[in-house]
Backbone:
């Protein structure tokens, strides 16, 4: 099964979706259906559970690819932001003082003001710098300043920055940019509606180490996992335990993407009902099946994720199945 242009991942898989069950004691209380797919850098669906052609928004898992113009424009180099600056541009962070300072550094080095950020001020917060997408927005502004593009409209779909992001994503997917479908994300920036297999293909590219800018992005994320999410958060804790081998980036509404560094393999997960706990449980389940994480690392994460409360735990049933090419 190989991806082609126009949101067509080939024949539907006959492999059933994964199922995540919340058990209170030994009694089932809630059930989540989850689709998952593994792709290589050629767009071949190697393994899946459920529908690899499932279409949904990639949400914040798009951020590493939204950071591409920040690098290709020369803005990141001109500002000498280093790996920390690249990492915060890809982050869905916790809004701590450390995270806010890193986002502010991008603005300061780009001669920009906090007031120019168009991400919202979070509830009970004081500044848009505390918004989980502030690093992405700061990088958007810095790129636009470097390229002499309008700053006031940097979130509009027709803005040169957003057009360039779509062009780069389409290039990685091997399809015309006009076929991409965008909608407004919660932070105000466009996000894309993709097949699950296309998300996995993007992450296969991210981990392949064949593309200089993507390699720089993956290196920065793995070097500073604390900036990508935050202490105790899933992406941060998983990357810390992977010893530089697994990149992890989640998105809202049950999206989770993974990449095996150096092997050019990407994984994409979608929980139909959008549950965060279910996507994390499935990610650990697949990491165990794929043997991408050490038993000790998995055990530590499982204790953090799968035990919801005393006497309440998550159980994943099903497995990835190999697909015919």
Residues:
């Amino acid at each position: 099964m190989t991806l082609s242009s126009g949101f067509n991942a080939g024949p539907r898989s006959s492999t059933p979706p994964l199922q995540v069950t919340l058990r209170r004691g030994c009694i089932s209380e809630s059930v989540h259906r989850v689709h998952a797919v593994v792709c290589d850098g050629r767009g071949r669906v190697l393994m899946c559970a459920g529908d690899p052609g499932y279409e949904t928004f990639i949400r914040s898992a798009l951020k590493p690819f939204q950071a591409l113009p920040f690098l290709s424009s020369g803005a990141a180099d001109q500002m000498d932001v280093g790996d920390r600056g690249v990492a915060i541009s890809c982050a869905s962070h916790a809004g701590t003082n450390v995270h806010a300072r890193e986002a502010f550094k991008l603005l300061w080095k780009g001669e920009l003001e906090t007031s120019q950020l168009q991400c919202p001020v979070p509830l009970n917060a004081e500044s848009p710098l505390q918004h989980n997408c502030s690093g992405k927005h700061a990088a958007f502004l810095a790129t636009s300043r470097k390229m002499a593009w309008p700053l006031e409209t940097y979130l509009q779909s027709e803005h040169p920055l957003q057009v360039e992001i779509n062009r780069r994503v389409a290039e990685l997917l091997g399809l015309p940019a006009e076929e991409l479908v965008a909608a407004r994300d919660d932070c105000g920036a466009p996000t894309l509606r993709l097949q699950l297999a296309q998300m996995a293909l993007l992450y296969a590219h991210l981990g392949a180490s064949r593309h200089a800018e993507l390699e720089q992005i993956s290196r920065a994320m793995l070097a500073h996992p604390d900036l990508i999410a935050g202490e105790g958060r899933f992406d941060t804790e998983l990357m810390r335990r992977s010893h530089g081998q697994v990149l992890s980036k989640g998105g809202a509404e049950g999206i989770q993407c993974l990449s095996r560094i150096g092997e050019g393999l990407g994984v994409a997960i979608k929980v139909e009902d959008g549950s965060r706990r279910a996507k994390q449980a499935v990610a650990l389940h697949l990491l165990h099946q794929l043997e991408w994480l050490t038993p000790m690392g998995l055990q530590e994460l499982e204790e953090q994720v799968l035990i919801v409360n005393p006497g309440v735990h998550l159980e994943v049933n099903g497995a990835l199945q190999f697909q015919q090419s």
Remarks:
- DSSP finds 13 helices and twelve strands in the chain.
- Residues 1-8 have pLDDT under 50 and may be disordered.
- The first helix runs from residue 63 to 66.
- The longest strand covers residues 27-40.
